Amino acid sequence: MCTRLTANRIDTDFNEIAQYLIAKADWVRKETIKIHLLAPETRLASSLSCVEILTVLFYGQIIVRDHKEDYFIPSKAHGTISLYPILADLGYISFQELKKVCNNGSLLGAIPDPNIPWYRTLNGSLGQGLGLGCGIAYGLKAKNDTRKIFVLIGDGELNEGSMWEAIMFAGHHELSNLIVILDKNKTSMLDRCQNILHLDPIEDKFKVFNWLTRVVNGHNVMELYYSLKDFRSVKTSKPKILIANTIKGKGIPLLENDPQSHIRTITTKELNNIMG
Amino acid sequence: MKKHLKTMRDAFIERLSSLMELDDTIMFLTADLGAPSLDVLRAKFPKKFLNVGIAEQNLVNLASGLALEGYKVFAYGIASFLVMRAYEQIRNNVSMLSQFHDLNINLMGLGAGLSYNIGGPTHQSLEDIVLMMTLPNIMTFSPSDSNIVRSLVDYCLDIPKPKYFRLDGHPLPNIYSTVDRNDISRGFKELVTGEDICLVSTGFMTHVALEVSKALGDSGIKAGVLDIYLLKPFNEDGVGKILKRYNIVITLEEAFINKGGLDCTLLRLIYRLNPRIRFLNLGYHDNYLFEIGTRDFLHKKMGLAVDDLISVIQQLYRSQQ
Question: What 8-state DSSP symbol labels residue B139?
Answer without folding.
Answer: E
